[in-house]
Amino acid sequence: MGEEGRWGGDAAWWSNLASSKGKGGCKGEYRDLSTSLRYGRDDGFWEGRKVVRDWEGWAMQITVRELWTMVHGMGFGALYLLACSGALVELWRMTTGRGVGEMTVGQERFLKVYLLVMVVLAWGAVLTGTYVVYPWYRAVAPAGTVDLAGYPQRLLMHSAATSGWHSVGMEWKEHVAWLTPMSITMVAFVFARYGRELGRHRQLRAAVLGFAVVSFLAAGVAGVFGAMINKHAPVTGGVVISLSGGGR
Length: 248
Description:
2 domains; single chain; 9 helices; mainly alpha
C-alpha cells in the first residue's frame, strides 16, 4: 500500500476537521497538516494532534461499571490465566515423575503459595462476575425503551446476529465457568496436603493435572466469551471517574 493510500483517510479527516473549526487559528498549522499526513510525516501527525488538543483538550474517563468489568476480566481473569499456564508446566513435570523428587522445601512452599494465590484469583473472577457485573448485565429495560445501550442482555437478544453471544457465551460464563475455581481449589488442596509426597501417587498426580487443565480451559473459554460479549454489549453506566483532565 502506498503512502497516499495509507494516510489518505486520516488526511481527509484532519482536513475536514480543520475546515469545520475554521482556518484562522492555531498559528496557521492547518495549511500544511493534510499534506504532512498524506506523506506519512510523523511531525505532521503529532502537530495535528496538538492542534486538536488546543481546541478541545484531552480527557480520560471510565465509569464505575466499566471499572468493575475490567477488575473482573482483566484483573482476576487475565491474571489467573497467566498464572495457570505456569502452574500447568510445573504440574506436568510432577506428573512425569521428574519434578517432585527434585523439589526442595523452599520450592514446595513457593508452589503452595502460588496455587493459593491462583485460588484467590479464580474465586475473585467468578464472584465479581456473578454478584457485581452480572446484575448490571441482566438489567431489565422498561417497557417501550428504544435505546438498549444500558441493558446489555436485551441489546444482545434484540438482534439475531448477536443473540448467540448471550444464549451460548453467557450461559457458559454462568455455569461452566464455575469449574475454574472449583477445580483449582481441589488442586491446591491436594498439593497442600501431600506436597512432595505427591510423587509417590501416580494416579493422584494425573488427577491433579487433569483438574488443572479443566480449570484452565473453562477460564480461557469464559474469557473469550466475556471479551466478545463486552465488545457487542458493554456494561456501562454509573458514576464517572475522571482519570485525567479534559477540555478547558
